[in-house]
């Protein structure tokens, strides 16, 4: 986003930053746009029964959170860090490339109003999943394309959707999709200033890297 050249190789456990046992910053309480809680653990009673969680990474999380909070049926969103090694990282640490985390959006949704398949369509159509460790001029492991699944069914649907979208991308002249699909291990909320950033800063940095290829 703003700190220059990023590392484009994921660290191993020996080279990853050590992190910490507790989060060192505030996250905020209420979603700036949706009016729902920002922190939404499914086992806490905060989230309505039957709602589900999706976690996706498709570049700079400021703009991508807005993309998903505008989807009907999405109850809450937050931005954070996932897919890496360092516990409770800060934004500055993620920017070094030494935590292994991607910038991601965590989406709480009502499956009676929007399906996981619907969210996958939004995911594929709103970035270029063939770029490896970058999105446009945003370079580094934190900007990689990832789907972090929360159930076996999500894993199955995500893998099938990648194969399906690859067909469309190939027809359009693009190369191989580099999106990693793996079960979610840990999700760490980002700092309060990053939550709903474009609602707080409507003229903030929001690059678009969609290919224009439809997930038909």
Automatic annotation (TrEMBL):
Residues 54-206 form the Peptide methionine sulphoxide reductase MsrA domain. Pfam families: PMSR (PF01625). Residues 1-22 are annotated as: Disordered. Residues 1-10 have a biased composition (Basic and acidic residues). Transmembrane segments: none annotated. Keywords: Oxidoreductase. Belongs to the MsrA Met sulfoxide reductase family. This is Peptide methionine sulfoxide reductase MsrA. It comes from Aeromicrobium erythreum.
């Amino acid at each position: 986003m703003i700190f220059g050249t990023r590392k484009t190789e994921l660290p191993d456990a020996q080279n990853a930053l050590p992190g910490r046992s507790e989060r060192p910053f505030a996250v905020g309480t209420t979603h700036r746009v949706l009016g729902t809680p920002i922190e939404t653990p499914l086992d806490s009673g905060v989230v309505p029964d039957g709602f589900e969680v999706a976690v996706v990474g498709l570049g700079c999380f400021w703009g991508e959170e807005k993309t998903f909070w505008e989807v009907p049926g999405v109850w809450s969103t937050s931005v954070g860090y996932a897919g890496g090694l360092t516990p409770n990282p800060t934004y500055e640490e993620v920017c070094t490339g030494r935590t292994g985390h991607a910038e991601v959006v965590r989406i709480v949704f009502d499956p009676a109003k929007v399906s996981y398949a619907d969210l996958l369509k939004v995911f594929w159509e709103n970035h270029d999943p063939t770029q490896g460790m970058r999105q446009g001029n945003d370079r580094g492991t934190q900007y990689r394309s990832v789907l972090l699944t929360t159930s076996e069914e999500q894993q199955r649907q995500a893998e099938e959707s990648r194969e399906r979208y690859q067909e469309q991308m190939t027809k359009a002249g693009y190369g191989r999709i580099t999106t990693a699909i793996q079960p979610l291990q840990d999700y760490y909320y980002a700092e309060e200033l990053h939550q709903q950033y474009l609602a707080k800063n409507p003229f903030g940095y929001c690059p678009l890297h969609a290919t224009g290829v439809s997930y038909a």
